[in-house]
Design brief:
Helix content is 75%, strand content 0%. Helix 1 crosses helix 12, helix 6 crosses helix 7 and helix 7 packs antiparallel against helix 9.
């Protein structure tokens, strides 16, 4: 495929059930379309982040982080790892207690982070509405709706749509992340391949109404039909949301300590930074889901013919 990766075969094969022909899409048009959708709905997304992410960030910073010294615990583990056998055996009881506390901390942090998936669902719904793959009721459309039916929802309607999609989205991403984790544990390469293959699974939940392994099937189908844009999308999303944003905001979060600010002020700054990071991550999500929305018209006939919609999980 070239960099214009056409998503339709042309109008000469059009019949009554044929998807309308769309213009070939480029990376520039995808980035522009995704950013314009983010900009047009910025106020709604900001309210969504303040309603969902802000309370979770407050709990994380002022309740969970304050009662657990994550950095100190990890430093202790590293010191014991390099200590002599006698010293390690003498601290075995303390290590066991710290390990349980660490697992509890990581579990609570993961639970708090998973609730923020509601904001991701909202961002995907907005892209789905713009491209006609999500009905006004929030249900997936059988095919792209006419442009006249694609009005963007307000905050209340968006929150309701996102909350309705949250359970299936959470279960799907649990399936995806467990698969990727096991791939990394068994051998590094399978984990990378599974991350690439399942990258569009979350979008399949909202756009197609499929979840679990069926969403994984649609995602893998997209990567087979569009390998080059899928690879570039996976690398870009990983670099932006997985590396760049966490690195930048972790550096910013460390600055208050350098200026000797008190714990409350530092905590408030950390909460604001977490909300800002989530908002920028939503922009990346909207750009990736815009790419999937451009792919979907060509994938729909294959999805229908595969019978995956009628399969049981």
């Amino acid at each position: 495929m070239d960099e214009r990766f056409d998503n339709e075969n042309g109008s000469q094969n059009a019949g009554p059930a044929q998807t309308p022909v769309r213009a070939p899409f480029t990376f520039g048009s995808i980035l522009n379309d995704g950013f314009s959708c983010f900009k047009e709905n910025f106020k709604t997304l900001l309210i969504l982040v303040l309603v969902v992410t802000l309370p979770m960030a407050l709990v994380q910073v002022f309740m969970i982080d304050r009662n657990f010294d994550y950095s100190g615990t990890m430093n202790t583990f590293m010191e014991l790892y390099s200590a002599s056998t006698e010293e390690a055996e003498g601290a075995a009881g303390d290590v066991s207690g710290m390990a349980w506390k660490l697992l509890l901390y990581l579990g609570l942090s993961a639970l708090i982070a998973s609730i923020s998936l509601i904001t991701d669902a909202g961002a995907i719904v907005l892209v789905g509405r713009k491209h006609g793959f999500v009905k006004e009721s929030g249900e997936p459309a059988a095919s792209a709706e006419p442009v006249s039916n694609r009005a963007q929802p307000g905050f209340s309607a968006l929150f309701e749509m996102a909350f309705r999609s949250f359970p299936k989205l959470w279960l799907t991403l649990l399936f995806v992340r467990f698969s990727v984790f096991m791939g990394f544990m068994l051998c590094f390469i399978p984990g990378i391949l599974l991350y690439y293959v399942f990258q569009f699974a979350a979008f399949s939940v909202v756009f197609c109404g499929l979840w679990g392994r069926r969403a994984g099937f649609v995602s893998s189908l997209a990567t087979r039909v569009y390998p080059k844009p899928s690879l570039i999308c996976a690398l870009t999303v990983f670099a932006a949301s997985g590396v760049l944003l966490p690195l930048v905001f972790s550096l910013l979060a460390a600055l208050p300590g350098q200026f000797g600010l008190d714990a409350v002020t530092s905590g408030i700054i950390s909460v604001v930074l977490k909300c800002a990071q989530q908002l920028l991550a939503l922009m990346v999500t909207m750009m990736a889901s815009t790419l999937f929305a451009q792919m979907l018209p060509k994938l729909e006939p294959i999805i229908e013919s595969s019978g995956v919609r009628g399969q049981k999980l």
